[in-house]
Amino acid sequence: MASILVVEDEPVLARNLRDALQLGGHDAVTAATGEDGLDAAQAGPPDLVLLDYRLPGIDGLEVIKELRQRGSSAAIIMMTAHGNIDTAVEAMKAGASDFLTKPLDLKELNLVVDRVLKHRQATASLDYFRQRERADSATDQLIGDSPAAQTVKKFIQRITASPALAADRPPSILITGETGTGKDLAARAIHYDGPRRNAQFVRVTCTAMPDHLVESELFGHVKGAFTDARVDKRGLFELADGGTVFLDEIGHMKPSLQSKLLAVLEQRSIRRVGSTRERKIDIHIIAATNRNLEEAIETGDMREDLYHRLRVLTLHMPPLRARADDVVLLAGHFLVLHSARFGLPVQGFADEALEAMRKYDWPGNVRELMHSVESAVLICDGPLIEVEHLNIRSAESRACLEVELPDAQTSITFDFSGDGLKLEDIEHQIIQAALEHSKHNLSRAARILGISRDAVRYRLEKYGKRRV
């Protein structure tokens, strides 16, 4: 049920409109003049105003303007017996949602009222979610007081205060860092604190879409471009026009698609699959990766020209072990978040639990900490979270690590208790184990490791040279 104000100077028509709206389940009141209508709207803000164009005193257009100046968000339907195109255009420019010509058909009126109210509700819901997303994505959501965290915040504040992001060709930003360090949150903070905050933020996970659909999803397609293309479809780049496209896991994008992305960055235009027409777009590109892209260039997995295009500005997200001072602060934030979410009376952490969190190196970074606290809140049986609730292992228990090769039914154990084990030695041992299991079949070893043949060959050559 909606609250509707009818502003109409003909008493019989006003009464009939009120009765019809009340029969439709709405709460309707009437006013005979524009001034009375403004007073009624001030006393009880309506969801919709059914407004006559010709009124004694101020006319309908002046009422619309005054309502908007007073901050009213009511939808407005203009009515007039003197309807013409110019009047309709003027009313819509002033802020009307729709326009009806007298004599009114009550069935048509109810249809228009329902449509306008549904649109208003959808718009209000969208505004709510946008405001909530904006609040959850601002720079102050990047929690941390450590020097490393402050460096990230200062970078974002400096770049979002610059007019560069609103330019026709804004500088691309490459965000690097381990999995779970908050690259997505940093990208959202750049968008929602920057000049494009009122436009779309579109996140694209480069590994989440099937290969045969990636190009269509990004660039769109025209009807008949392929078997299932039954209608024209806008791609994600078009949907983000005026806003930001966040390309997550860019280091895993297929080389064939990288050349098309490079063309978008250089030309600022896209072409739908199956179309010959170029469409200009205004987007800001932010990319993120947990891969070493310079190494990916050497193995042929990353185009060097695209890499340099993306890294006009680079932001590195530090691992949690490099900002140990923030662990307790973050844990407290997640405790409040999850205890409120689940309605559980968990009040804090035992001293032993705090000490354990400080000593743990959090290989999964902030994401691991968040899920660890979430789990602890759920299984905690008292007001304080104890060490056993956190499900984290001590450094001593993690001195030995067993790695199982996927699809190989082979495992390798590494002992980190000494000082001689290096990352390159671990990688070399894993590659050798995969080769031995596959009887030195390079393609099969590459499938086991989830990398390309060229990547395996590159690493073997690299280690061979180091051992000469």
Structure description:
By secondary structure, the protein is an alpha/beta fold. The protein folds into 4 domains: 3-129, Rossmann fold; 148-316, P-loop containing nucleotide triphosphate hydrolases (Rossmann fold, 3-Layer(aba) Sandwich); 320-390, Helicase, Ruva Protein, domain 3 (Orthogonal Bundle), CATH 1.10.8; 400-466, Arc Repressor Mutant, subunit A (Orthogonal Bundle), CATH 1.10.10.60. Helix content is 47%, strand content 16%. The protein is built from 19 helices and 18 strands. The strands form 6 sheets. It has a 5-stranded parallel sheet, with helices on both faces. Helix 2 (34-43) runs parallel beside helix 3, helix 6 packs parallel to helix 7 (183-192) and helix 13 (327-342) packs across helix 15. The radius of gyration is 30 Å and the shape is globular. The model has no long low-confidence stretch (mean pLDDT 86).
**What is the CATH superfamily classification of the largest domain?**
P-loop containing nucleotide triphosphate hydrolases
Can you tell me the number of structural domains?
4
CATH architecture of the largest domain: 3-Layer(aba) Sandwich
Q: Please describe the biggest sheet, giving its number of strands, its sense, and whether it closes into a barrel.
A: 5 strands, parallel
Secondary structure class reads alpha/beta
What CATH calls the topology of the largest domain is Rossmann fold
CATH class of the largest domain: Alpha Beta
**Radius of gyration from the CA trace?**
30 Å
End-to-end Cα distance, whole Å, is 81 Å
Care to count the β-strands?
Answer: 18
Mean pLDDT over the residues: 86
Shape: globular
Number of helices: 19
